From TrEMBL:
Substrate binds at Q21, H122, N166, Y297, W413, E420, W421. InterPro entries: GH, GH_1_N_CS, Glyco_hydro_1, Glyco_hydro_1_beta-glucosidase. The active site is at E167 (proton donor), E366 (nucleophile). GO terms for molecular function: beta-glucosidase activity. This is Beta-glucosidase. It holds the Pfam family Glyco_hydro_1. It is an enzyme of class 3 (hydrolase). It comes from the Bacteria.
Length: 459
């Protein structure tokens, strides 16, 4: 592909991973169990019973992985810190060996000329905190602030870019209402309380990071691009309910200091019991950010649907009377996701339209695709579909920037094939293949393509 998109000077190219998806070493150096250890070890929860026990063994192989990043030429690497390595039970004094691991990783990155970008929470909550109520209870937000203070105290001087939470929608709704993510609960009002406590935890963590004097603070969201299946009032209403849950619940408090006007219509009686929202919370949640992290993969076509109650005893908060319809006439990746690059442009310009000057600069903290990769006879992985996906999405991103959206950086998901949560190791998002039998890493064609794109910006 010769028509490479061209980005302005200073634009940051990066790659991203997350602790539980790559580290392995689940029982080493004092790490405590997280909700994902317990969930993935529960029969029937993950495809093939896969767990993160070994994953990519990054905990031991991080020098090799940093070398891959250096050869790729990225300016920045986004990784996450495993809370249960720092505080095995989610509270109390720091586990020095856990801090030492991230300290070594950060030094290795800096030596390779790569800026570390740290995510404090990419879903691996210490199980001990889940046993006390998890994100359903406000105490977890307070513990998160203490953990943040410990980590920032050790790494603030060497890590310039910080992300408080990754995709809190997944933590709240996949975790406590859909039940497809740890801890696997299917609850109503508690899932809404979890969403709020994640926002509070974010606000408290921002304060700690500011106190530690870090350069840049942000949060990573996964805004959905919801399109009504038809122009009917019913489908447009359904798309607004989907938008409320996936997007407005997060962006309205964080960027506009208000709860979404549509939340009562969306949640009905579940939201009328709002005793988890305390006075002053909005001020805490709406503190200014240096950037908004956006993870983007695919659009969603949404239609009105009847209320469904699988079990009258269970109030499923995500049942907002909408259902996804298949996006017509497009290629699907191995996740079954429709590939529609222009919706990436529309999502970003839509954020700008809604929030205007209150929208901080954006970093795309994840974008990428899982494909049916094969190792060719020559040992290489010719992942042409991934190359096309990345090319088209970077081009769509550039179009949004031309339309006035301030985007400062792009992190490809992911550096490595890794543990794709409930879907296990069968789904491969990496630009580097991992052979899980040997732990051998093989850069795919997409790695070489991305490397060229980055090099073309170096003059
Ligand atoms: C992001 O999640 C995550 O930040 C990252 O960790 C993840 O690897 C990446 O994107 C790719 O998915 O188990 O059948 O219910 C995006 C949200 C959540 C979408 C899990 C796929 C699995 C669907 N992802 N979900 S299922």
């Amino acid at each position: 592909m010769s028509d490479l998109p061209v980005f302005p000077e200073g634009f940051v190219f990066g790659a991203a991973t997350a602790s539980y998806q790559i580290e392995g070493a689940a029982n080493e150096d004092g790490r405590g169990p997280s909700i994902w250890d317990v969930y993935s070890h529960t029969p029937g929860r993950t495809d093939g019973g896969d767990t993160g026990d070994v994953a990519c063994d990054h905990y031991h192989r991080y020098p090799e992985d940093v070398a891959l990043l250096r050869d790729l030429g990225v300016e920045s690497y986004r990784f996450s810190i495993a809370w249960p390595r720092i505080q095995p039970t989610g509270q109390g004094p720091a586990n020095q060996k856990g801090l030492d691991f991230y300290s070594r990783l950060v030094d290795e990155l800096l030596e390779a000329g790569i800026e570390p970008a740290a995510t404090l929470y990419h879903w691996d909550l210490p199980q001990a905190l889940e046993d006390r109520g998890g994100w359903r209870v406000r105490e977890t937000a307070e513990r998160f602030a203490e953990y943040t203070a410990i980590v920032a105290g050790h790494l603030a001087d060497r890590v310039p870019r910080w992300i408080t939470l990754n995709e809190p929608w997944c933590s709240a709704f996949l975790g406590y209402s859909v039940g497809r993510h740890a801890p696997g609960a299917q609850e109503g009002t508690p899932a809404l309380a979890a969403a709020h406590h994640l926002l509070v935890g974010h606000g408290l963590a921002v304060k700690e990071l500011r106190a530690a004097g870090v350069r840049e603070v942000g949060i990573t969201l996964n805004p959905d691009f919801n399109v009504p299946a038809t122009d009917s009032a019913a489908d447009r209403g359904a798309a607004l309910r989907a938008d409320t849950q996936h997007n407005l619940v997060w962006t309205d408090p964080i960027l506009a200091g208000r709860y979404p006007a549509s939340d009562e219509d969306t949640w009905g009686e579940l939201i009328t019991r709002q005793d988890f929202r305390l006075d002053g919370d909005l001020d805490l949640i709406a503190q200014p950010l240096d950037f908004l992290g956006v993870n983007y993969y695919r659009p969603t076509l949404v239609a009105d649907a009847p209320h469904r109650e699988p079990d009258p005893a269970v109030r499923v908060a995500t049942d907002n009377r909408y259902a996804e319809r298949p996006w017509p006439d497009v290629r699907r990746n191995s996740m079954g996701w429709p590939v529609v690059p222009e919706t990436f442009t529309q999502l970003l310009t839509g954020l700008k339209e809604r929030y205007g000057d209150a929208l901080p600069p954006i970093h795309i903290t994840e974008n990428g695709t899982a494909e049916h990769d094969e190792v060719a006879a020559d040992g290489a992985v010719h992942d042409a579909d991934r190359v096309t996906y990345l090319h088209d999405h970077l081009t769509a991103l550039r179009t949004a920037m031309d339309a006035g959206v301030d985007v400062r950086g792009y992190y490809v998901w992911s550096l490595l094939d890794n543990f794709e949560w409930a879907l296990g190791y069968a789904k491969r998002f990496g630009i580097v293949r991992v052979d899980y039998d040997t732990q051998e890493r093989t850069p795919k064609d997409s790695y070489h393509w991305y490397r060229k794109l980055i090099a073309a910006h170096r003059g």
